[in-house]
Each structure stands twice: as C-alpha cells, then as structure tokens.
Amino acid sequence: MSAGGIQNKYSAGSEASLGTSYTAIELKADGTLGGQKVASQCYLDKLLFTWSSISTAASFSWYLAYDSDGKFPITDPQESISFKDGKTTSPAVKVNAFDLAGAAYRHTNQGQSVFLIAKVNAGSAKVEAVLLWRGR
Q1: pLDDT in tens, 14-53
Q2: HSE (side-chain half, CA atoms, 13 Å) at 38
Q3: Cis amide bond preceding 91, omega within 30
Q4: CA–CA distance, 76 with 33 (Å, rounded to integer)
Q5: Proportion of the chain in helix, strand, coil states, percent, rounded to 5
Q6: What is the three-class DSSP state of 125?
C-alpha cells in the first residue's frame, strides 16, 4: 500500500540482456510476471531491478522514457550505479531499487507504455525490471 490507502500497481519488463549500448525495455503487462500497462495519468513510485548473469560489468546506467528510442525522457539519467548484493546462494543475484518519489506521469494515450532505457558499463548482464505506480 502507498500513502492514502491507494494500492500500488506494477508494470514489468521481461528479462532482457544488456550490453554497453542503451537498450529499451518496455515496462508493461507481462504474461510471465503479470502486471498492468501504465495508466495514462499516474504517479511513479519505485523502480526495482533484479540482475543475473553479470559478465565483467561493475555498474549500470538507466532512465525512464516515453518512447523506445529514449528521445523523450521521464526521469533524469542515473549513471554508474553499482550492483547491490541480493540473494547470495546459487544462483546469486544482484538487486537495486530506486524511489521515484511519486513522480507525476501523464500521457494522452491510455495504456501508453513506459520504457526503461538501460546499459551496463562493460560486458553484459540480464535484468528484470518492475515499475511500481499508482493512479491519481
């Protein structure tokens, strides 16, 4: 639950492989992870990352955008973020979470997607991302 008793909804991206160039990941209703398309007017609360298969990468950079080309950002770029230890037993994973402070999101198309634009500093890694949001 978030402030005011309004329940968070979520949009998820299927597992994606990242390299050293920015890659767009659509955060949407996902058949595996569930979730819903982002409402045309909502508040963005948190962005959660689960990392696996990290090969030589030590950090990552990301931002949210209205479009898959990343030309219209929703958030400022976050650069050179270190992976945080998550589950350390096999298979080990790294995790990160970012508070988006209820950033207001508005799009004229109902159910318009939000795109995570992300890359790693070296090598490659696999990521699953979940965006928590609530209606307004």
Answers
A1: 889 999 999 999 888 665 556 777 778 888 899 999 999 9
A2: 30
A3: yes
A4: 26
A5: 0, 60, 40
A6: strand
